[in-house]
Amino acid sequence: SRFLPNSDITRLNTAGSHPVAVAPETVAVLEQAVVAWQATDGAFDPTLLGTLARLGYSNSRINPTHVSRFADDAFDAGSPDRILISPDHSHVSLPAGTVLDLGGIGKGYAADLVASELADDEVGALVEVGGDLRCAGPPPPGGWHIDVADPDRATVAHHIVLNEGGVATSTTRIRRWVSGGTTHHHLIDPATATPASNGVSACTVIAGTAAWAEVFTKVAFTRPATSALATLEARGLGALITMDDGAEYITDAWKDFAR
Q1: Which of 110, 122, 135 shows the shortest CA–CA distance to 206?
Q2: Which one, of 158, 178, 161, lies nearest residue 169 by Cα?
């Protein structure tokens, strides 16, 4: 967490370019984050903490006394491809000006990690972390039944059934705040360093893992909806894109899970 003073992420964000000893799980999620940045052509970017702080999202919404800490020279967006991991995977160095916010992929990865530890050949598990879901192991009869809420998370909009895999939803309607008289949300378009404003209000993705599902929701907020849908379609992902006006677009794979 970027909000906890002694977390691996905070220690990296305050270390400048110096190597920091981190847990194996931190190395693993960082490696996934870099691959995700490449796979989404930068739509998912784990280095936008400087932008979020500039826009007024420095404090935890759960406990406002927890404040993101990072180097004074932090960029709006950093260089994920220049993050250095030691050969023995024990230390990480960030490029100068690069600071991390792994909130989204971190939740997905945590769900994946716990589900894999709980499930075995005889017992399945469904784990939810901050809205990111992972189903692993043998499913119950009829599969795992999952409700998908509307963008405001007020009512159930869709119902899907999975045997195994991950589900994640990102929405512009949650995690909003006012700074300088302007309302912002936490889904940043890396190309503009501003909250995404392409007419998409929410995106739900079904993928092999919760981390991968979380990552690919970001594609919907950084390009026209039809282009995003084509990208998700090409990846074979189940996806639902909901527009600000209520219009919905789905991939063919989504139909395999919808009930």
Answers
A1: 135
A2: 158
Q: Which of 213, 175, 169 is nearest to 195 (CA)?
A: 175
> SS3 for 49?
helix
Locus of tokens 């998912």? 44
For residue 21, what pLDDT is reported? Answer: 98
Tokens at residue 215, please? Answer: 């990552």
In the chain, % of residues over pLDDT 90:
91
Q: Which two tokens stand for residue 5?
A: 């003073």
Residue at 23: amino acid letter = A
Contacts of 197 (CB under 8 A, 6+ apart): 189
How far, in Å, CA of 113 to CA of 207, rounded?
Answer: 15
Report pTM. Answer: 0.94
| C-alpha to C-alpha distance for 58 and 14, rounded to whole angstroms | 14
40: which 2 tokens? 């989404």
Question: Which sign, positive or negative, has the C-alpha torsion 44, 49, 55, 59?
Answer: positive
- Mean pLDDT to the nearest integer, 56-81: 90
* Predicted local confidence at residue 61, as pLDDT: 87
- Residues 77-102, mean pLDDT to the nearest whole number: 94
| Cα gap 38→188, rounded to integer Å | 17
* Spatial CA neighbour of 41 closest among 212, 197, 190: 190
User: Is the sign of the CA dihedral 90, 43, 4, 109 positive or negative?
Assistant: negative
pLDDT tens by residue, 47-56: 999 999 999 9
Tokens of 36: 């995700």
- Any bridge partners for residue 147, and if so which? 159
pLDDT at 68 over 90: yes
Residue 72: predicted pLDDT: 80
Q: Is 111 helix (H, G, I), strand (E, B) or coil?
A: helix
